[in-house]
Specification:
The relative contact order is 0.23. A hairpin with a 5-residue loop joins strand 2 and strand 3. This protein is of the alpha+beta class and 97 residues long. The chain is 16% helix and 40% strand. The chain has one helix and six strands, in the order αββββββ. The strands form two sheets. The chain has a three-stranded antiparallel sheet with strand order 1-2-3, with no helix packed on it. A three-stranded antiparallel sheet has the order 4-5-6, with helices on one face.
Length: 97
Amino acid sequence: MRDFRGNDSTMSAIETGKRAKSGSTNAARPRFIMLSERSIKVLKRDTREVVTKHPVSSVCCVVRDPAEPAFFGYITTEPAINNQRYSHVFSTDCVVS
């Protein structure tokens, strides 16, 4: 992420993800997200293999799209990589108000 602007950066990543999903001919990759007080784990749905894991302390902002609540995302900061920031965007079939 080049220009970090907090929640605005996360919303921008969500919008990019929505455009990519709508223009994609590939099927979405089903994932589970496991949240705990210490970490966020993203797992492959079929094998439960961990795809990525982030300590909660590396998450700097979390946003849900108000117009399309099925889309949400968060940004992590990776200290081991010069504090590089990465956006993570997901959509779900299950939306809780």
